[in-house]
């Protein structure tokens, strides 16, 4: 699962990012409110961890803008502001939970996991499907025909990105920036290598392919 952290304190951001990555999440970091807003509107996130006291735009302004734009990702508000009025404001603006600083990372992680379990009755938030291929985002498992497919971390993240964009072509540049957080290097073949290994694990002889190469454009996952 992919999480966006919007936090301008470098030390706090480092602790949270490292902890969440160790727990198996993909984490992007924005260091001010405007960057956080741009990232959240431009990428699919399962959850956003939002500080309040931020440069350029404060967290409440970002949350309000995201909800106005129809963004439905879960939002956990982090803030040193601890009055009842501040908490109510955070929730009324569109936050799903509010955690007061300072906090223990274990509590932050528990709240994130609890928010991600709230599926509004829609399994699609935690299970992606293309044909008979399933990707369980909570348990970080891929399955086809009921059989678990062992995937390395980057293979899982690559498959997740492709499946989230089912039916849409994603370029090598998009994959590099989303999965590896790298600016695109036209000389590298890391995407092609990973796609090839992913196909070896996911595809089955005698069945229509799910992962397709679109020459000159990129890759797309389609239902058979």
SSE arrangement, N to C: EHEHEHEHEHEEEEHHHEE
The overall pLDDT average reads 86
- How far from one another are the termini? 25 Å
The Rg value, from CA coordinates, equals 19 Å
Which runs of at least 5 residues are low in confidence (pLDDT < 50)?
119-124
Description:
By secondary structure, the protein is α/β, with parallel strands linked by helices. The protein folds into 2 domains: 2-117, Response regulator (Rossmann fold), CATH 3.40.50; 124-221, Winged helix-like DNA-binding domain superfamily/Winged helix DNA-binding domain (Arc Repressor Mutant, subunit A, Orthogonal Bundle), CATH 1.10.10. The chain is 40% helix and 21% strand. The strands form 3 sheets. Strands 2-1-3-4-5 form a 5-stranded parallel sheet, sandwiched between helices. A 4-stranded antiparallel sheet has the order 6-7-8-9, with helices on one face. It has a two-stranded antiparallel ribbon with strand order 10-11. Strand 4 (74-79), helix 4 and strand 5 form a beta-alpha-beta unit. Helix 2 runs parallel beside helix 3 (59-68). The model is unreliable at 119-124 (pLDDT under 50).
Secondary structure: elements and pairs:
Blueprint: E1 2-6, H1 10-22, E2 26-30, H2 33-42, E3 47-51, H3 59-68, E4 74-79, H4 84-93, E5 97-100, H5 105-117, E6 127-130, E7 133-136, E8 141-144, E9 147-149, H6 153-164, H7 172-179, H8 190-202, E10 211-214, E11 218-221
Parallel strand pairs: 1-2, 1-3, 3-4, 4-5
Antiparallel strand pairs: 6-7, 7-8, 8-9, 10-11
